[in-house]
Amino acid sequence: MSDGQPPETGRVILVGTPIGNLGDISLRAVEELRRADVVCCEDTRRTRGLLSALGVPAGSRLMALHAHNEAGAAEVAVRRAAAGATVAVVTDAGMPGISDPGERLVAAAIAAGVPVDVVPGPAAAVAAVVISGLPAQRWCFEGFLPRSGRARAQRLAAIAGDERTTVLYEAPHRVLRTLEDLVEACGAQRPVTCARELTKLHQELWRGELAGALRWVEEHPPRGEWVVVVGGAPAAAVGEDAVGEALGAALDAGVDRRSAVAEVARSLDVPKRRVYEAALTMTWPPRDL
Ligand code: SAM
């Protein structure tokens, strides 16, 4: 029944939850989860377990919002908020919207004029970059790399040339391949930190260079959740001219192309692929290129 007044407006509130250690839940997160009329979550069973551990009754407030229904569920959630409900949003772990559902719901709420709020909480990317030992003044979150093809190659090339630290999420069964691709794109000596099972009982950090990380992962088949933090490209990057000159000198000295590429890559500490590409574009005189 309408009383001529505009409908009361509720809100959508994104709530960060722990990435493995229940002790990381915030007081405000508990309070908002207790007060919410609706709790959108990826996996209702998992969130029921979290609420139960926090002593917060779930009742009939849980609503599934996951990668496969986000558009439709977001519409329903925004309608509830526009009608006055407080709609809390959690995911299985960490911050909603970070490699997890949330972004579409926020966009839909903003479009509908529904206020959006946030309870900041743990995010694996932030935890990993600050503990990595790599520069954290400027860094880039890449989330999960595209699985294959040109999109993956382009992303890897962008990471290789980026002077900022890059943070990647990876599933355990893909860590090995991703490290192999990073070695290929960034060179074996690029600094890296692999962070697994952050905040959990079996938290483990491996710090070193990509080649060593690859060996470590080969020897210790990866399990659990992983973040790979890759150091940025050296600030004073070796210019194309320097690569061309070193290559020319090696070829002039009679070194064959394959060995010249390897030698220059090693001496200038640049990826072989980059030297090889320089070799292809060179207009150096009578040489077998
Ligand atoms: N929304 C989450 C966040 O704020 O970090 C990320 C969710 S994403 C679907 C899951 C990925 O995050 C995992 O595959 C892993 O790369 C990373 N991750 C989540 N928890 C982690 C942990 N405890 N240790 C290491 N990586 C973790």
Overall morphology: elongated
> Compounds present?
S-adenosylmethionine
Give the N-terminus to C-terminus distance in angstroms: 81 Å
Number of helices: 11
- What average pLDDT do the residues reach? 92
What is the CATH H-level superfamily of the largest domain? Tetrapyrrole methylase, N-terminal domain
Secondary-structure class: alpha/beta
If you consult CATH, what is the topology of the largest domain? Cobalt-precorrin-4 Transmethylase, domain 1
Q: Tell me, what is the CATH class of the largest domain?
A: Alpha Beta
Second CATH tier, the architecture of the largest domain: 3-Layer(aba) Sandwich
Low-pLDDT ranges: none
- What is the radius of gyration? 25 Å
Instruction: Estimate percent helicity.
Output: 40-55%
Mind explaining what this structure looks like?
This protein folds into three domains: 11-122, Cobalt-precorrin-4 Transmethylase, domain 1; 125-230, Methyltransferase, Cobalt-precorrin-4 Transmethylase, Domain 2, CATH 3.30.950.10; 240-280. It has helices at 27-35, 44-54, 70-82, 103-111, 124-131, 149-161, 175-186, 210-219, 240-252, 257-268, 272-281; strands at residues 11-15, 38-41, 62-64, 86-89, 116-119, 139-144, 165-170, 191-196, 204-209, 226-230. The chain is of the alpha/beta class and 289 residues long. It has eleven helices and ten strands. It is elongated and about 80 Å long. The strands form two sheets. Strands 3-2-4-1-5 form a five-stranded parallel sheet, with helices on both faces. A five-stranded mixed sheet has the order 6-7-10-8-9, with helices on both faces. The protein binds S-adenosylmethionine (SAM). S-adenosylmethionine (SAM) binds at residues 19-20, 91, 93-95, 98-100, 123-125, 169-171, 195-200, 225-227.
